[in-house]
Design a protein that fits this description.
Seven copies of one chain form a homoheptamer.
Chain A (H helix, E strand, L loop, with lengths): L22 H11 L4 E6 L2 E7 L15 E5 L2 E7 L1 H22 L5 H14 L11 E9 L2 E7 L5 E3 L2 E4 L3 H11 L6 H15 L9 E7 L6 E2 L2 H10 L14
Antiparallel strand pairs in A: 1-2, 1-8, 2-9, 3-4, 4-5, 5-6, 6-7, 9-10
Helix pairs in contact in A: 2-3, 4-5
Function (chains A, B, C, D, E, F, G): Component of the proteasome core, a large protease complex with broad specificity involved in protein degradation.
Subcellular location (chains A, B, C, D, E, F, G): Cytoplasm
Protein name (chains A, B, C, D, E, F, G): Proteasome subunit alpha
Chain lengths: 251, 251, 251, 251, 251, 251, 251
């Protein structure tokens, strides 16, 4: 799926290729495809985000590999791709949320926030002097009782999913979701499905200790990261069969 | 129809080719030709916009693939091409409409709005540092009782049509319109014709569930998107014969 | 007449070729040569502008292909070349005319306006970061009783003609004018000559329905576009012989 | 005399060649050498400027080919090279003259004005982002009783001549002047010499009807363009022998 | 591990390679890999930083090779890579710390400071006109009783470690830490481990006289550089066996 | 002495060559070497500047070839190289001198002025977007009784000489000075030596009529250009032997 | 030691090479290596700076070849490399010193000043649009009784030495210092050592008349340049043996 050398049409964001493609945006998507896997799942009780933090050394503090961020009381985000880019977008999202609170004295609508982030990302696909963001975000939240789960990509495209994944394991995770997703799941069921997807996305090299889970429930629409113990309890409940391991996530 | 490598005259918007062409604008048009199909049809009772949203996965929320946008009470827009670019143009159109309301205390003329959008798009074909917009718009509305349907393209050209299409299925749709368009049609007749065009544009791979229809009627000049049920009722009325499938939309 | 690949001297407006030419300006002129034909003719009673709008589809609203524009009470313009560029120049001309009215409380002199437009176009032939305008204009008007007809081109050169043409059919039209132009013609005679020139310019593929005519008369120095009926009356009067068809307009 | 391809040292005004030349300035001079011929001659009674306007078509209004411009009461200018560039320099010269009047309540010194124009032209030979002016000027005037005749070129060099020429016919004209110039000539004698030079410069293809003459006399130091009749009277007086035709102006 | 020539995708920070990499950032990391070794170690009593200053000549004043900097009362930094870049980042860190004191009347949180530095470094990986920082930092400090040890790199990535190293000897140092690190160590034990790591990192070419040690203890959370005598005492305690010498730090 | 094509290191002022040279500055020096010869000589009574104006045509007014300029009462300048550049530097020098008068109510020190000019020239050797000045200056003057003679070059280097030359004839002139210069000379002796140097510099093609001489004497420290008669008197006194003609000035 | 052509990684300061080097900075160092030799030596009584001014002609005023500059009462600087660049840095240093006096009413610390200069130089190694400084400085001074001797280079690196050299003769000078430097030397001994080093650096082509010496003593911490007589006295004391001539300074 990796594009070939494209006769120079791929060297600048301000240049279309003869077939109307923006190669630099496509290359930025490749940076996302090299990132750690993150998945998001809507369910009957709310929406969850799961990431596998891929901690490579026992000397690393797992808490410092932040892949799930709280944006506002009712919104959380998971990222994949360039870490520094993600941090910038998260900061921007937090500021936008605060501006909304200060200006209108109410929390920002999840979709409005997602659009603002995407508009910002689009600018980096049209103007020279900078590169596109090499990061994708899953934006999960609840506005006026409605559960939302958006996915952005480096082009500034915004789509809403019932369940989706970003990063290196996206193909494996999506295969699981296409087959097994059920909107009637509880939070617990969604977490089980998400862990299964992450397990498939990592070809079974699943490290329980570094899964991070974010959740927001309709009952109590406040986004929170689960405590390690809570995560561990879920992980212990799941049994992974060898057949659940995806084989095509290496793209 | 795809241009070949052009000795470097095609790398920047600020460079004419020896035969007076702006290749980057032509390449941006290719981005539109790769987009989803949208059609617009004027009729005796008003004007309609139809798009096929091409929902590729059951996990995707179809509502998030927005291709028809309400700009102001009396104006709607359908887009094809780069999604992020379209969103930007739509935002700009909405702001222009609001500025007109605030400044003159009346709704903006459909043609004035279309020209403002085109002037903005033209700038990106003359100045360096950015790329042209990779998007086309159908702008439909009613001003002072007159039904209008404009089409823009990345060069900033503005044309008014009785019926037209943009995106990958434009050739197939135009063939249908050339043969069957009748200005005396009712809204209902226009929707039937539009569905037929979309059906041809997709080579029969028509997904009823993801057609989106926008409409504004002379009787009640307020642009609205039809409810899914309303759309479904229309779709159920139409029968598609195999012979109506266009074969040349792949250009 | 089309220039060949010029060793890179033709890639930027800020670069002279070794023989002192600005290739980008010459390439912009090629964009004009690819445009629709427009002609202007001075006569004893005033000055007229004629364009052939080349409407390619019955679905297109001919009124939306604007090639003749009223600039001020006493000035009209016909354009050929890039449509978006022409619209920008026309807007600029209208603003200049209004500024003159507001500042000096009188209508702008036709030549002053033409020079302002040309000065603006010249800037795009000397400074980098943008391309020259790919459009030519015929500027017709009456100031202090004097009938004026100017032609601009992408270099910002300004010339006044008794009769002239721009666009793809210029050579054929000029051949007609060189042979048959007579300054003593009436408006009616000028229109006949203009139609003959357009007919030759289109190699006989003349579409009566899409000719647009602008006129300003010394008697009543107000520029106006003729009504379709008025145009049709003129067209019906003219008989086109095959020999009047130009054969060299393809340059 | 035309420079060859220079290994890329000739692509930007900000780059010296290894032998210390600025090729872009030299190429701009080539643009002047392709221009129409203009000559200037000081004499005992004042100074004159003559140009051959090379009117190529009977449809063209000769008055619109302006090559001699009045700058201020006491200063006139003749140009050769890019027409749009000349118009800009002339506008600048007029503004400088007016600024002097307003600021010091007296007319600008001819040499001061010429230096200001040259300083402006020099900037375009040192800074990137623009090209040099492709035009040369002859600046003629009288300050404090002294007759002045300056020549500028694209490099911003300023020289004063007794008699000189610019444009395609410069070599032929200079040959005439070197042989026949006499500072004791009257205006009438100077015009005769100038016409002879123009005749040589055009290889005998001399068109009497399109010669334009500007003059300023010490007696009445007001620059004026001669009326066509006045010009014709002079032309009628001169007899051109074949041997006076220059043969080397094609450089 | 050194990347090869990459078809031009590696010449600008604003260009992604086809596989989504930013080569200029990776090359900046190579500048860090060529730097002197610095290590940081958290322990039960606080956190330490050690650097080997590689003094190449007896004529050099060792004190002028600054590799450990005090940022604020409670924060210190060790650097590796381009010296001038490090000094700039250190200055920036000091200013950020002061701004926090002045604005909130309290000392800056270690993690907040580290993020601010990383955000600054990220900007140089996204915008053209400058190069990324060719430096890495170890940021050690204590906020609200918590011991922190962060590592930044040219991409603006921020990670927290229990023990880590930067510069040419990182691989050798990390091998020691993976095998022998124990969070229960005292400051004294940590210094011993750090010296062992530096010894391995320099392939035994260890110069006791130029080791610099920074320390901050939980008991008295003030960052300080150890006096030479204090350093010497530690060094004298350690015995280096040949087998502890790393052999792969040359990468 | 002319540098060869240098693998592209010579195309921009912002690029050093691998051996630490700035080729664009060296090429600018070549522009000076192509200029007319100017010499400056300090003597017991003051300092003089001489230039050979190389008047190429009897039609040229020699007075317009200005190569010696008065900057302030006590300072004069001779230039060689690009004429337009010299005029700019001279204007700048005059303004600096006036600023000093206005600010401190005293005349500017010769060395201070020379440094200011050089600092200005240096900027054009370090920043992109412009080229270095293609001109050298001899700056002669008297401050507080001290006779000064500075030479600048395109790099912004400033040196003081007892006697020196710039332009095409520098080698020939310097050979004369090395052999014959005597600081005890009178003004008259210095002029004789300068004329001899100019004679050698022009390989004997010496044109008495176009020598220009500037002088400032300790007795009356006011810089002035000598009257033509005064110059002629000096020239008449000198006899040029063939052996004094330099043969190596063609470099 | 001269780098080879580096596949284009060496054309801009904003580009790292694949092995993490900034070639433009290294090339700027080559400019320093081509400069005249300057040495600095700390001793028991203060610190001295010595330069060999390489006066190439008897016509040159040696005083105008300034290589040692007084910055403030207590600080002096010696430079090597591009002369114009050095002058700029010296001016900047003087301004920084004055700013400190005005702002804090005390003289600037030598190290603070050196850092400010280096920070300024670093900027030119990170941002495009300019080149790095092609100059190195030795900064000598006394702050609060402490004798300081810093060396800067084009990268903005700052090191303090007991004795060091810059310019073409650095290797030869450093060899002398490594062998013979003794911190207990008196000023007189230091001057003797410095002269020996310069002698070696010039391969014996030592010109006594153009040595310049700057000195600041702890007793009277005011930087001054020695009078020529004082310098001559020192030079006369030293005897140079052939064996002291370095042979490797040509690098």
């Amino acid at each position: 799926m990796q594009p070939q050398y494209q006769m120079g049409y791929d060297r600048a964001i301000t240049v279309f290729s003869p077939d109307g493609r923006l190669y630099q945006v496509e290359y930025a998507r490749e940076a996302v495809k090299r990132g750690t896997t993150a998945v998001g799942i809507k369910c009957s009780e709310g929406v969850i985000l799961l990431v596998d933090k891929r901690v490579s050394s026992r000397l690393l503090e797992p808490s410092s590999i932040e892949k799930i961020y709280k944006i506002d009381e009712h919104i959380g985000v998971a990222s994949s791709g360039l870490v520094g880019d993600a941090r910038l977008l998260v900061d921007r999202a937090r500021v936008e949320a605060q501006i909304n609170r200060v200006t209108y004295d109410e929390s920002i609508d999840v979709e409005s926030l997602a659009k603002k982030i995407c508009d910002h990302m689009q600018v980096y696909t049209q103007f020279g002097g900078a590169r596109p963001y090499g990061t994708a975000l899953l934006i999960a939240g609840i506005s006026e009782g409605e559960v939302r789960l958006f996915e952005t990509d480096p082009s500034g495209t915004l789509l809403e999913y019932k369940a989706t994944g970003i990063g290196i394991g996206r193909p494996a995770a999506m295969k699981i979701f296409e087959e097994e997703y059920d909107p009637a799941m509880t939070i617990s069921g969604a977490v089980h499905l998400g862990l299964k997807a992450l397990h498939a996305a990592t070809e079974g090299k699943f490290d329980v200790g570094t899964v991070e889970i974010g959740v927001i429930e309709t009952q109590n629409p406040v986004f929170r990261k689960m405590e390690p113990a809570e995560v561990k309890a879920f992980v212990d409940e799941v049994e992974f069969s060898p057949s659940e391991t995806g084989a095509d996530q290496g793209e």
